[in-house]
Amino acid sequence: MDIKYGYIEGEDKFFYLLNLIDIFDRSIIDYHMGLHCEVKDAAALLRKCLIRRNLFEEGSKKPVIRTDNGPQFISHKFNECCEELKIEHERIPVKTPNKNAHVESFHRILEDECLGINKFESYAEAYKIVNEFMEFYNNKRLHSSLRFMAPHEFYNLYFGENLTNIQIRV
Q1: Count of domains forming the chain
Q2: Which domain holds residue 137?
Q3: Are 121 and 10 in contact (CB under 8 A)?
Q4: Which residue numbers delimit the Integrase catalytic domain (predicted)?
Q5: What confidence tier does 163 reach under pLDDT thresholds 50, 70, 90?
Q6: I need a surface site. Which of 80, 92, 149, 159 has the fewest CB within 10 A?
Q7: Residue 158 pLDDT more than 60?
Q8: Is residue 106 a contact partner of residue 27, using CB atoms and an 8 Å limit?
Q9: Nearest Cα to Cα of residue 75 among 49, 34, 42
Q10: Which of 68, 30, 25 is nearest to 46 (CA)?
C-alpha cells in the first residue's frame, strides 16, 4: 500500500491516490482517490480490499500489509485498525523504496501511462481518466511476470474461475 500524487492543472491543486496492490497477481485490489488522504481513508481501503478478496471473515488467512513510514501508516489509528482486523503491518525501513518495489513499480507505470501524459482540467476529469486507467491496468494491460496476462486474468486462472473471457495470444 502506498500513496501517489497527481496534479490538476486547471484547478492548480493536487490529488492523492492511495493504492493497494496484490503482489501475487499485480492487481490493484482497490484504491482511494481524493483531495486528501488521511488515516481513515487508509483504514477504509484496507477493509474494502479484504472484502473484495473474501478475507474479511473471522478465521480467514490474512495477508501482510507492507507500507512505507508515511504519517497515515505510522499512526496509532492505522495500527489499531490492523490489530482489529488481525493483519500484520510491515513497515519498510526509511529511505528504502525498493523494499516496496511492487507498488513503486505500479506508480511508475501509472505516472508514465496516465498521470504524466494527461493535463487534467478538473478533479472530475482526473477521476474519470484515472478510473479508466485502473480498469485497463487490471483487465487488459499485459505483464511479463504474469506470463503475458492481465492481473485479473491471471488471478482467475490461478483460482479456477470461469475463463471464457481469456484471449489466446501468439
Answers
A1: 1
A2: 2-159
A3: yes
A4: 1-159
A5: very low
A6: 159
A7: yes
A8: no
A9: 42
A10: 30
